[in-house]
Amino acid sequence: MSHTLHRRGTAENLKNDYVVFAIAAQSVNAAGSIPKFARFFEMARKYYPEHISSLGDMKTGNVFHVGLEAIEKGFRENSIVHAVFTDPEQVASFLSELKDEDLGLSIVVSGLMEQTAECCGKSGIMPHTQEHSMGIWGKTSRLPEENVLELSTMCGHGMISFGIIKKQVELVKSGKASPEKAAAALARLCHCGVFNPQRAVEIIRLMAE
Fold first, then answer.
1. What is the CATH architecture of 11-122?
2. Whole-structure pTM over 0.70, yes or no?
């Protein structure tokens, strides 16, 4: 199951939120995979993703926290390399190039199903598996407001707390931070790097109005 599966939002504000990541099967093809991850990373950067990160044993981090150079030097055979995009055309072009490159890694794409299927179609790829999130069940009345959930669920490991989100929004309201600065502060906390800072800017700006 992908940890990017449970992003909250509307069809409108999720239509420009895509995560593409590469992973090796530890018992099958992980040996010798470091150059493949490096190549995936190099290819992804050509399409200017919003956020790109290496997740191995969770020691490397994301570009907002450690920078690109540290990530490039940190690939391991148990890495998972992510790239977050806002433009479906870039996603389709990236997938097409990945198909031609044939790295031998598993590629997962997260996003609204209709849009991701269209991206795959444009790149000549037929998805073999589709996963759905069934949402949150239980005492949902104890959850914070929807905008807070939209921001917190962009970190698939739940590392961005509700309180920190509300604090950043208050900083924007008071004029002490811009929406861009607040989004970057939240992105630093998503260690694996699947947070979408551009989408966060729009949500924070809406919350601060």
1. 2-Layer Sandwich (3.30)
2. yes
